[in-house]
Specification:
- The chain is of the alpha/beta class.
- The protein folds into 2 domains: 127 residues, Ribonuclease H-like superfamily/Ribonuclease H (Nucleotidyltransferase, domain 5), CATH 3.30.420; 124 residues, Helix Hairpins (Orthogonal Bundle), CATH 1.10.287.
- The chain has 10 helices and 6 strands, in the order E-E-E-H-E-H-E-H-E-H-H-H-H-H-H-H.
- Strands 3-2-1-4-5-6 form a 6-stranded mixed beta sheet.
- It is elongated and about 90 Å long.
């Protein structure tokens, strides 16, 4: 009985697809076809793979162009393939190959040839395959990586704000531990709103600050004659920080909702010294709630 494997070379707008029976003597005989990358074209691809009786699919892609192809095949091809009469234990398996492991000789880039080489190297066990979690875990990863990027943006914004304050001769960053902490933000907000009296601004600081009122008044003395443009730029920065903080809060809630079924695992991980709830969520998003995908030896 034939056992067919499909190879897909994925590009932004076009997919080059080949299918061949890999249990034959001699050279593989490939059936070739080109598909688009839009949703309807991907459904046609899944239907065609069913018609071709492909048991496995291996693909390679630059950037993230493989994602919609993978998700379409999960939805429209995988289950149909697994439920087919006479299906193998490996029927419906999707593979994502790392592009470097499928390189051809220099100067010989041809898409169908790349797709054919994917099939040959998969059979020969010569490909480096990437781990792709299930659809649910991919959502976890997306949320956590979006939150990570938001936090990076916040740090970058804090650095830009510090540079702006230095340029404006507002020397507050050397006197507070957190430039975006509650006290510093209150004082900066007052300056952004037009306050010109350093004593009034300093009165907004938390008493627990280690800096003395005299040090703070000296650092903020420039606000008496501060150029209005700097006030506007400070206000823009504070508004952007507030927007990022709100986005992070929303992502925290999204992640808590997504992992509600795995709350026990999150809590157990969070109890490990050095970890917290956020780190626990990130670990589970990357490796899964049980890490069952990875070998124990």
């Amino acid at each position: 009985m034939p056992y067919k494997i499909a190879g897909i070379d994925v590009h932004k707008r076009m997919l080059h697809v080949v299918v061949s029976d890999v249990e034959v003597d001699g050279e593989y005989e490939f059936t070739r076809r080109v598909f688009g990358s839009r949703p309807e074209a991907l459904r046609s691809l899944a239907t065609w793979l069913v018609e071709q009786e492909a048991e496995e699919v291996v693909m390679e892609s630059t950037a993230q162009y493989w994602r919609p192809v993978w998700e379409a095949l999960e939805r429209y091809w995988k289950q149909h393939c697994q439920k087919r009469q006479g299906a193998h234990s490996t029927s419906g398996t999707l593979h994502l190959a790392q592009a470097q492991s499928n390189r051809g000789r220099r100067g010989r880039k041809k898409d169908f040839r790349d797709a054919e080489r994917l099939v040959k190297r998969l059979v020969a066990n010569e490909l480096v395959l990437s781990f792709v979690p299930d659809a649910e875990q991919r959502l976890w990863r997306t949320v956590m990586r979006t939150k990570y990027q938001a936090r990076r943006n916040r740090v970058q914004l804090q650095n830009r704000l510090e540079a702006l304050l230095e340029e404006a001769h507002i020397k507050i960053s050397s006197l507070v531990s957190d430039l975006l902490g509650v006290s510093a933000r209150r004082m900066l907000k007052a300056i952004a709103e037009g306050q010109t009296d350093p004593a009034t601004v300093v009165a907004l600081a938390d008493e627990r600050l280690q800096a003395t009122p005299e040090q703070l008044r000296d650092a903020l003395g420039v606000c008496r004659q501060l150029n209005p443009l700097y006030r506007r730029l400070i206000r823009m920065a504070l508004e952007e920080v507030a927007s990022i903080d709100k986005r992070i809060e929303q992502l925290d809630q999204e992640m808590a909702d997504l992992l509600r079924r795995h709350e026990d695992q999150v809590q157990r991980l969070a109890e490990i010294p050095g970890l917290g709830a956020d780190s626990a969520q990130q670990i589970i998003a990357e490796v899964g709630p049980t890490a069952a995908t990875f070998p124990s030896e």
